[in-house]
Structure formats: C-alpha cells, structure tokens
Amino acid sequence: MASLLKRVYTAFNPPIVPKSTSVKPLKFGILGAANIGPLALIVPAKSHPEVVIYAVAARNLAKAQAYAKKHGIEKAYEGYQAMLDDPEVDVVYNALPNALHYEWTMKALLAGKHVLNEKPFSDTAEEAREMFALAEKKGVVLVEAFHYRFHPAAKRAKEIIESGEIGTVKEVSVDLMLSGGSIPEGDIRYEYSLGGGAFMDLGSYVMNSIRYFSSSNPTSVEEASYEAYQPRAATSDYIKNVDRRMEVKLKLGGIKATGRCDLSMPNIFGIIPRFPQIRVLVQGDKGSVDFFNFVLPTVYHSITVKTEGGKKRVEKVYKAKEGKGDEWWTTWRFQLEAVVDHLRGRETDVWITKEDSIANMEWIENVYEKSGLGRRPRPEPVIVSESQPAPVADDPPTQS
Ligand SMILES: NC(=O)C1=CN([C@@H]2O[C@H](COP(=O)(O)OP(=O)(O)OC[C@H]3O[C@@H](n4cnc5c(N)ncnc54)[C@H](OP(=O)(O)O)[C@@H]3O)[C@@H](O)[C@H]2O)C=CC1
Ligand SMILES: O=C1OC[C@@H](O)[C@H](O)[C@H]1O
C-alpha cells in the first residue's frame, strides 16, 4: 500500500528536472486549454529535460492566459492559428474535441509543426489518411497519443501472448466501462458534431487494444449494438446519434473478439455507482492472459497468466527491466519519452504507426456503420494549397 501511494503521489508530483543545456529543448504548444493537458503533457514534461511547454491557445484569450498562468506556460494565444504561426513552437499537442483533430492537425502540419494528436485520431479514416499524407509531404512527425501502448505493462502482456505460452489466440475481450456520472452532461463526448460517442472515445481504446493484443486487424464486424445517450435536457440529435454504450463482436480471421465500452454505466438501483471495468482478456488454446487496468497501469494493474494444468501467476510491470523509466512514470510520461526520442532520431521500442492509426479509424467507422448510427460526420476538407486539395495516402493499411 505504501509503495502504491508513493508511486501515485510521485506520478502526479514528479521531480522537476532542469532543462537540458546541451540540446535545445523542444517547445510544445497545446491546442485548446484542454482538461487532459496537465495529465497527458504538462505534468510529464516536468521530469523531461528536453521538453518545455511553451504555449497554449484557446478560443478565448482570458482562458488561454488563465491556463498559461496556472501551468507556468510562457505564451498564451487567442485563436489556434495564432499559436501555429509562432515559429518557436516545435511540436503541437492537439487536445481538441475529436471532430477538430483533422482540421487543426492539418493546419499545424501546414505550419511545419510535428503533431502529437489525441485519440481517436479523427472522425473518419479518410481524414486520417489525409493527415498522414500531409505529414509525409511536410517531412514532420505525426503520431496518435495512444499512451497506454507506451507503458511496459502493455508491452509485457503482449510479449507473454506472443511467446506462445497461452497457445494460439482464440478470443479477445476488452471492457472499458466507466462508473455512472464519470462523464458529466454537456461533455464533448456526448456531442455528435464534436465527434462524440462512447465508441469514438472509449471504443477507440477497445478497438486499438483488440488489434494490438491479437496482432491482427478485424476482418468483419459481426454485431454492434448501442444504448443511446439520453441527457436530462434532451435534444433529438443527441439521442439519435450518440452512443453512451456500445458492445461489439468482431472477427479477426480465426480470432473472435468482444468489446464493450460505456461512458457512464447506470447506477445500481439508480444510486450505487458500479465499479469501472477496465480489462483485456486474451484466451488462447493453452491458457489466458488477463490484463487488469491496461489504461491506467501506473496506479495499479495486474497481468494474470493461466496456463495448462491450472498453473497461475500474476505479473506487475511498473518499470521495464531494461530501458528507460521509473515505477512512477505514467503512460503519458512513457509516451512523451518516446515522442521526444523519435523526434531526436533516437530508437524507441514502441511507436504508433500511420497504418495502425488509420486501421483503427477504419474499424471504428465500420462499427458505427454496423450499429446503424452511421459514421461520424466528416468536416470540411482542409485545402493544402489554393490549387491542390489535401493529398490522400495511397496505401491502405493491412496490419497493426
Ligand atoms: N490520452 C488521454 O488519456 C485522453 C485523451 N483525451 C482526448 O483529448 C481530447 C480532449 O479531451 P478533453 O481534454 O477531455 O476535452 P475538453 O472538454 O477539455 O476540450 C478540449 C478543448 O476543446 C476546445 N474546444 C474547441 N471547440 C470546442 C467546442 N465547440 N466545444 C467544446 N470545446 C471546444 C476547448 O478549447 P478552448 O480552450 O479553446 O475553449 C477545450 O479546451 C479528446 O480528443 C479526447 O478524446 C481525453 C482524455 C484522456
Ligand atoms: O483515458 C481516457 O479515459 C476517459 C475517457 O473519457 C478519455 O477520453 C480517455 O482518453
């Protein structure tokens, strides 16, 4: 218990390291005075010698200034383009609502910035292809912030699965279901026009982890059923288009997968919140791997391995035996390390590839099609130049 408390305390109050004087630290700018900013980037940057959180942009100057003051950020911009026009910004963190990932990442790429783009990557796979094509054209790095993948526990769980210890993978099931009230009314996640929906938000992890831990892409969506979001002050649009919960059954060649996500599970008897369900279970023909809390492993996680003859062991990997990191490093801290290493041309053992992000969006789209809710709306295309529309990548993804 003491080690858990120490780990969690240090994760959120990390040691502040001096910034490097031997290499010029990378200057990050945040698009949106976003709620996720501190957890995903600002706090992790405190212990990274090569990162400075230099700027934040908000639609409203006062909001940007208040955020900058609170987090010790040098520059506050009114309007997102103003920050993109600042030549000092090296890397843009796009933490805008899902429906704005495409537009503002495209604009950041056009400005020659590297981009760390939040999940889900975009509203549609077509946008994702355009975004990567533009990044390639501009010669900059674009990567999706699937932070859980950078943690050594995720790597270890996959290593066990791939070692053959549990035999051939037959079934994967992923649950990512939050307690009632976790996502409050009015949140961007419930807003169709902002790319809302349980399967866009939590489902993007569900799809990603099914694909990641099975090392396969889906071949079909067999079933996709949803429960609509029903706000107290309902508008017909919300109820029609936005899933509060989604359950999917997929096939990935010979592997069956089930994914369930819920932004706000109904309380028991209307008053008692349900415990969040965050787990990946991979069933092989010789055993299973049950990875509990794959999204927030730094707080606590377990990897339970069952093999033939009823043998069982539990592994916990807060820090890799080899490689960088500390027990208190969050998924976002590991992610930041990899992003910086990648930008510096240093080797990273984990990366989220273009093919991976595009495939994830394709299958999220297919789930929405199958559910009857239909794909999320595609925003207006960003024109790359007056004479030329945005380029489209020509190689459709196959494997993650
Ligand atoms: N990697 C992770 O662990 C997590 C990732 N996310 C992802 O990060 C993104 C942001 O999530 P979160 O921080 O919770 O979101 P917020 O509700 O904090 O919204 C982010 C920003 O969106 C801006 N915004 C622009 N247009 C609108 C609009 N029409 N309505 C509302 N907000 C608008 C606001 O910027 P302004 O300041 O300009 O007003 C706001 O600061 C999402 O894509 C989400 O999926 C979220 C949580 C965890
Ligand atoms: O990590 C997360 O947990 C809560 C979600 O709603 C959020 O968007 C996601 O990224």
UniProtKB/TrEMBL annotation:
Residues 155-289 form the GFO/IDH/MocA-like oxidoreductase domain. Its EC number is 1.1.1.179. It holds the Pfam family GFO_IDH_MocA. Keywords: Oxidoreductase. It comes from the Eukaryota. The keyword Oxidoreductase applies. The keyword Oxidoreductase applies. Residues 372-400 are annotated as: Disordered. It catalyses: D-xylose + NADP(+) = D-xylono-1,5-lactone + NADPH + H(+). InterPro entries: Gfo/Idh/MocA-like_OxRdtase_N (IPR000683), Gfo/Idh/MocA_domain (IPR050984), GFO_IDH_MocA-like_dom (IPR055170), NAD(P)-bd_dom_sf (IPR036291). GO terms for molecular function: D-xylose 1-dehydrogenase (NADP+) activity; nucleotide binding. Residues 26-144 form the Gfo/Idh/MocA-like oxidoreductase N-terminal domain. Belongs to the Gfo/Idh/MocA family. This is D-xylose 1-dehydrogenase (NADP(+), D-xylono-1,5-lactone-forming). It comes from Gymnopilus dilepis.
